[in-house]
Specification:
- Keywords: NAD, Oxidoreductase.
- The protein has 318 residues and is of the alpha/beta class.
- The chain folds into two domains: 114 residues, Rossmann fold; 193 residues, Rossmann fold (3-Layer(aba) Sandwich), CATH 3.40.50.720.
- It contains 13 helices and 13 strands.
- Strand 11, helix 11 and strand 12 form a beta-alpha-beta unit.
- The N and C termini lie close together (9 Å).
Length: 318
């Protein structure tokens, strides 16, 4: 049986699938040619990340397709319910990339708090002539310890981020639709302890107490932004925002307005409303740190993703 890993899969995943009797093809097929390729080559499974979409028209046009896999968490690029109604298996790897995304967020929290991202832009060109003025410009950093972070969406990634934040001495407020007590494991010098966090479901009630906000929610079904003008107006001045979830979760127009007005100190975006062609004013803004949707893009995460996909495929189709 043949599997098309259209957006790639780790060598470990390929090896596991081949041992399970599958043929894996990693040649990328353009979206407009996907239906023809699946039918012509007889693929029983197609694996995607965020670049390829598998919508109703693909599902209807490929009667021999048995499985759709998403290497990662969010499946908003797949018509999941429709595929399952048609009898297809739809799988993903929700836990494989949690630590990688959490570490990217932490890197941004440190970088934004100390102006590192922007300093790295200007030092190569003006550092030898404007050293003293740049030293003054970046001399108003702040520490993470003692600050409060609101983690919006407290699934696996949110909980992984919470463990890092707690380790840095931050106060964590978990905002989630599920109001419950979470036990966050911390490993310290080889010893494990747990910290309990009680989540809240009322974002507006806590928003003005947050020094940092990190988003870990799927794209909203109605297309609305979780953070828009209303939310920004209610925030504490000087807040720092990180979006490593989905483009559109933060209204980019409102974000730029909030930054330019001094309400938002800085922001980091790993995802954008108009991927793969983000707005130039977003990318060029000196108070926005941008990365090209690399939250899960570590060697370790991709290995885990490939292995977990292979395990599920072998169990379901082998």
């Amino acid at each position: 049986m043949k599997i098309l890993a259209n957006d790639g899969i780790s060598p470990e995943g390929i090896t596991a699938l081949e041992k399970g009797g599958f043929t894996v093809v990693t040649t990328n097929v353009p979206q407009e040619q996907l239906i023809d390729a699946i039918n012509k080559e007889g693929y029983v499974g197609v694996l995607v990340r965020s670049a390829t979409t598998v919508r109703k028209e693909v599902i209807d046009a490929c009667p021999n397709l048995k499985l759709i896999g998403r290497g990662g968490v969010g499946m908003d690029n797949i018509d999941v319910a429709y595929a399952r109604e048609k009898g297809l298996h739809v799988i993903n790897t929700p836990g494989a990339s949690s630590q990688s995304v959490a570490e990217l967020v932490m890197g941004n929290l440190f970088s934004l708090s100390r102006g590192i991202f922007h300093s790295n832009r200007v030092m190569p060109s003006t550092g030898n002539t404007e050293f003293k003025s740049l030293k003054k410009k970046y001399a108003k950093g702040q520490e993470l310890r003692g600050k409060t972070i609101g983690i919006v969406g407290f699934g696996r990634i949110g909980q992984a981020l919470a463990s890092y934040c707690i380790g840095c001495g931050m106060q964590v407020i978990a905002i989630d639709r599920k109001v419950k007590t979470y036990s966050i494991p911390l490993t310290l010098q080889g010893q494990q302890t747990n910290v309990e966090i009680n989540s809240v479901d009322n974002f507006p009630a806590v928003i003005d107490s947050l020094d940092y906000i990190s988003l870990h929610v799927p794209k909203q079904e109605d297309g609305s932004a979780v953070i828009d003008t209303k939310e920004i107006d209610a925030m504490k001045s000087g807040v720092i925002i990180v979006n490593a979830a989905r483009g559109g979760v933060v209204n980019e127009d409102a974000l730029i307005t909030g930054i330019n007005a001094g309400k938002i100190r800085a922001a980091a975006l790993d995802v954008f409303e108009n991927e793969p062609a983000p707005r130039e004013d977003i990318l060029a803004h000196e108070q926005i740190a941008s990365t090209p949707h690399i939250g899960a893009a570590t060697v370790e995460a991709q290995t885990r993703i490939g292995e977990e996909l292979a395990e599920q495929i072998i169990e379901l189709l082998g």
